[in-house]
Write a structure and sequence with these properties.
The protein is an alpha+beta fold. It folds into 2 domains: 4-282, Butyryl-CoA Dehydrogenase, subunit A, domain 2; 286-470, Butyryl-CoA Dehydrogenase, subunit A, domain 3. 50% of the residues lie in helices and 13% in strands. The longest helix has 30 residues, at 286-315. The mean pLDDT is 97. Bound molecules: flavin-adenine dinucleotide.
Length: 491
């Protein structure tokens, strides 16, 4: 099976990765990315570990080799639950902090392959290319990133209406070998540790936008593809002690810019059809299944944050106070509802073209709830913690010098932790909810699957309005509308 060391080796591939105005020669050793790429390698080591074989891997139907279980198309509810257990185990390796772990984009591809007929209807050659790529990615156990959103510019205009003309990635040329792409996409999360990128579009397109309608895959190291990294929180981490989450789990986000990038037809799954570009997400189960993975991961993260909430109350001696218990109980209820949503969408899942997938309307309801819940959890942690998140030594250096260490020991007190444990814990909490890393996580959980109005649009579309409105009609048919003058006592 693929090992972490092999994955790291593959990342030193000549990719054009830009940070602070210069190209990074090898992301696996650069101080802004080396810990996260090591975390990514750890995912593959965990999948390959003999003790995790049944939980985290399965036999590829095409190669017979064992690969990550996220590539499995679940045929039954039990198989879905098995994939879920694998996804939870993978998420646990980062306390749920890595949103685009290897199972995320794989889940999108699995969902597309479940609905391969949708691609076949549009273009049998593209569908065959998708199936071929799926086997390739699965059998090589590739780590994929994706860019499926156009760069934020003028949201009152569509892709074609943006000033400059070359902003949004589009097909600018096509010949017998393939297509040429020019323009940008946001945001290639985890691409720094990925082998390849899926480039597509999930935002609605209109007739006339055909050049913007395409789905293709390419290695990160493809000539002409530049990844512009945001600021690295890993590089900003003063030490593992100071920023334990930024230090290891900064999955990075980057703008992808395609400067006349050639993609062979064998890696183009859909092109020049705005109807098929939407159908690939919503008539297949790609949207459902990729977001199912996200919710599985989120439940792991919420459990971790809830553990922090309780520990804050212990460390500050507030845990027995009725108001604090009320806060913790209310949080526990909301997080448990997310677990219930997950169980519900599995229990009420549906058979879809030989697969078993989570219930779509429950999935979208879970997404809407998650977008609101995450900021509430962050706010509750801050409220529980008070100034303790700030009353901290400037860095680990203060603990290395006898005078400042002694001051720390005299000023950091807790009924439930030693002074150094208290500092260590509150630095962890601040990294989760207050540091730039923590702040980016808030933005991530609010937006990674689309702005709230988009998610609510899905909820509107998938809800059983006919059934609900029918109940109102049924009830109203049970009593009469009075004829004119027929009501006693009317004026
Ligand atoms: C940390 C992070 C990581 C990400 N990772 C990825 C990734 O790996 N791959 C990827 O493809 N994308 C990624 N994204 C992009 C993500 O999918 C988008 O942020 C999301 O789809 C919302 O699009 P937007 O950011 O352009 O916001 P917009 O669509 O511009 O929305 C911002 C706000 O503007 C308002 N608004 C905009 N349009 C309308 C409208 N039509 N009607 C009403 N109100 C409107 C709403 O208030 C909305 O909340 C990531 C984003 C973040 C923040």
């Amino acid at each position: 099976m693929k090992t972490g060391a092999q994955h790291l080796q593959a990342l030193d591939d000549g990719r054009c990765w830009m940070l602070d105005g210069v190209a990074v020669p090898d992301v696996t050793v650069h101080p802004a990315f080396r810990n996260f790429t090591a975390t990514a390698a750890g995912f593959f080591d965990a999948i390959a570990a003999p003790q995790n074989q049944a939980l985290m891997s399965f036999e590829s139907p095409s190669s017979g080799a064992r690969v990550g279980r996220h590539w499995q198309l679940p045929a039954t509810r039990d198989e879905l639950l098995g994939v879920r257990a694998h996804m939870q185990a993978l998420a646990a390796l980062s306390c749920g902090m890595v949103g685009r772990s290897p199972d995320h984009v794989a889940a999108a591809l699995v969902g597309m392959v479940m609905g391969i007929e949708v691609f076949e209807r549009h273009d049998p050659r593209g569908a065959a290319a998708l199936l071929d790529y799926f086997r390739h990615a699965r059998d090589k156990d590739l780590y994929l990133s994706y860019v499926i959103v156009n760069p934020q510019a003028d949201r009152s205009r569509g892709a074609a209406g943006q000033a400059g003309g070359d902003l949004v990635a589009r097909i600018v040329d096509e010949d017998a070998q393939g297509i040429t792409i020019r323009g940008a996409k946001m945001l290639a999360t985890s691409a720094v540790a990925a082998n390849e990128i899926l480039v597509s579009g999930i935002q609605p397109l209109a007739p006339g936008d055909e050049a913007y309608a395409f789905t293709a895959a390419l290695p990160v190291a493809t000539p002409g593809l530049t990844l512009m990294s945001r600021r690295s929180y890993e590089a900003m981490a003063a030490s593992e002690f100071d920023n334990p989450l930024s230090f290891r789990f900064d999955e990075n986000d980057a703008v992808a810019h395609f400067d006349d990038v050639r993609i062979p037809h064998e890696r183009v799954f859909l092109k020049r059809n705005v109807v098929a570009a939407a159908a690939q997400w919503h008539d297949t189960r790609a949207h459902v299944y990729q977001n199912y993975q996200s919710l599985v991961r989120l439940t792991v993260k919420l459990r971790f944050l809830l553990g922090m909430a309780h520990r804050i109350a212990e460390v500050n001696g507030t845990v027995a106070m009725p108001q604090v218990r009320d806060t913790l109980g209310a949080l526990a209820a909301k997080v448990t509802l997310m677990d219930a949503a997950l169980a519900g969408m599995e229990a009420a899942g549906e058979a879809y073209r030989g697969c078993f997938v989570p219930n779509r309307s429950m999935l979208c309801a879970g997404q809407a709830a998650a977008q609101r819940l995450y900021p509430e959890v962050v706010h509750a942690l801050r409220e529980l913690a008070g100034g303790g998140l700030i009353m901290l030594p400037s860095s680990v250096q203060d603990l290395l010098h006898p005078a400042t260490r002694s001051l720390v020991e005299r000023t950091q007190h807790s009924p439930a932790a030693s002074p150094l444990e208290r500092v260590k814990f509150f630095k962890l909490v601040w990294d989760a909810v207050g540091s730039e890393f923590g702040s980016r996580h808030l933005q991530y959980e609010m937006f990674y699957s689309g702005a709230a109005f988009v998610i609510n649009g899905h909820n509107y579309r998938f809800y059983d309005w006919a059934g609900a409105v029918g109940l109102v009609g049924d009830f109203m048919r049970g009593y009469e509308t009075p004829p004119l003058g027929g009501v006693q006592g009317a004026p």
